[in-house]
Amino acid sequence: MGNGVDVTSLQSELEDLWKRRDEVPLQSAEAVAAVDAAIGLLDTGRVRVAELLDGEVVVHEWLKNAILLLYKQASPQPSQFGPFRCADKIPLKSAIDGVQVSPGAVIRRGSYQEPGAVVMPSHIGIGSYVGEGTLVDSWVGIGSCAQIGRNVHLSGGVGLGGMIEPPMARPVVIEDDAFIGARSMVYSGARVGEGALLGAGALLTDTIPVIDAATGEELSRGEVPPWTVAVPASRPREFAGGTFGLPCLLVIKHLKKGERHDKAKLNDAVRTQPPATLSL
Ligand SMILES: CC(C)(COP(=O)(O)OP(=O)(O)OC[C@H]1O[C@@H](n2cnc3c(N)ncnc32)[C@H](O)[C@@H]1OP(=O)(O)O)[C@@H](O)C(=O)NCCC(=O)NCCS
After folding, report:
1. Which terminus of the chain is less hemmed in, N or C, by CB atoms within 10 Å?
2. What are the residue boundaries of the Tetrahydrodipicolinate-N-succinyltransferase chain A domain, all occurrences included (predicted)?
3. Domains in the chain and their CATH numbers?
4. What is the longest distance spanned by two Cα atoms in the chain?
5. Residue 10 · residue 38 · CB < 8 Å
6. Which residues line ligand 1 (CB under 6 A)?
């Protein structure tokens, strides 16, 4: 793996650098080159910060730590974005393969979008991954290291939390064929299962209970089961000061595996033939 980069030795070099980060000069040419090589691998999709293996989220800590080392090494660099002047530590992507990108999209180097993804004006953080056929609609914010599968629909204004600050053990994961309704927020390592539909305005973090409306059973905290429809709701909670409604997610329907909800059908018209490599 890795077009000329020996990933195994790069991993041990970065693990060593991470252990000794308070003792060694992080600005040395070797340290800068090692971090840059790791970010380059992330940028071209040859490695990813986290992936699903046998249904479990596996985090590759050395890649997450490479991003943290980059933050330590980098100093704000001036740039110009239309009429706006910026001073930013993490550069933008400079080339993208086969992805439809609208003006106003801000895509960081070190993130990867598979060919066939569509990116409207939105912000895509470092270390994140977006699968083929996924639509990132306007004003979506994809936090650092969030992992988004294939044929996902992230509706307008959706917010997906990052893994860097505050530091999270797990990234947000949105699995293949999921549909995230407008202005929904998924944070703190929460996970939306394959084919699941999250209704508009939902809030999901690792502590939000997901409750089955048919049985009242709490199915999980922070995980929407695959092939379900979940909408934002509240549950009464007793406190010394009275009874208050705290947010939860209510699973109101179970879909058959592979079934797409009528209100979540994808429209091929927006997914055009991917363009050739674009230099941004
Ligand atoms: C979840 C959704 C798909 C509806 O699913 P559905 O299976 O057709 O369910 P229904 O419309 O029959 O609604 C079932 C119940 O959930 C409630 N409900 C539906 N969506 C809800 C939401 N987003 N928030 C809170 N409650 C919701 C309905 O009011 C209804 O309650 P009722 O039984 O008392 O009438 C739809 O409401 C939704 O949120 N779609 C996403 C829209 C969107 O974000 N589009 C993107 C545009 S860019």
Report:
1. N
2. 9-70
3. 7-74 (1.10.166.10), 89-258 (2.160.10.10)
4. 63
5. yes
6. 137, 155-156, 181-182, 197, 199-201, 229, 231-232, 252-253, 261, 263
- What is the rounded CA–CA span in Å between residue 122 and residue 141? 6
Q: How much is the average pLDDT of 141-161?
A: 98
Q: Which of 252, 255, 265 to mutate to test the pocket of ligand 1 (most atoms within 8 A of CB)?
A: 252
> Which atom number of ligand 1 is nearest to the Cα of residue 155?
48
Ligand 1 pocket mutation, candidates 192, 231, 250, 255, criterion most atoms within 8 A of CB: 231
Element of type H or E holding 248: strand 242-254
What is the tens place of the pLDDT at every residue in 157-215?
A: 999 999 988 888 999 999 999 999 999 999 999 999 999 999 999 999 999 999 999 99
Please state which of the ranges 2-6, 61-65, 91-95, 259-263 shows the lowest mean pLDDT.
2-6
What are the DSSP calls for 183-220, one per residue?
Answer: T-EE-TT-EE-TT-EEPTT-EE-TTSEEEETTT--EEE
Closest CA to 102 of 62, 130, 125, 135: 135
* Each residue's pLDDT tens digit, 26-53: 999 999 999 999 999 999 999 999 999 9
